[in-house]
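Chapter summary example.
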Amino acid sequence: MITNLAAGVQAFTSNAFLVDGDRTVLVDTGANFDVVDGLRANTDDLEAVVLTHTHPDHVGNLETVVEAFDVDVWGFDPSQPGVDHGIEDGETVQLGDHEYVAVHTPGHKDDHLCLYSREAGILFAGDLVFQNGGFGRTDLEEGDRETLIESIDRLAERIDDDFAEMHTGHGPSVSTDPAKHVELAGRMARQM
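The structure predicted for these 192 residues follows.
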């Protein structure tokens, strides 16, 4: 089961997805709200935090989550503050009941990862792509439009016909034809 603990929060934050199952993991911690209470209301056994990237809105609650649950943090770049273990491009990570392949997708931030489970048909897209063709900002430090387009293309090559759910770093998750939203993001990024 996947629960967005930031749903309804009226603060500047990313989504924070609790993925429950064989290995209970929080994908991104969000910022500026009490995610620990939300976690405690949904699980007694948080086993890890996995980060799509280390922008402040995605890691603002990281320290309080680590203190409350004594968990390790996984992300692409272990030299980033708070990241205990690196996840390499193409590496497999268990979230909940499924194995996800990590896809290094820079362009919004150098350490950006997407996580895709072909078996489950689920993608955690971070800030690479959003609903209705939205895509990550490239005007921040480490942002680069051409690199972002290449990352969207790499991701689009990995997803298949069974792709059913896309959980994004901001805004609503997509459960109706998410591949079209990824394709549209690639087109929109090229036009702007």
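To summarize the output: The chain is about 25% helix and 20% strand.
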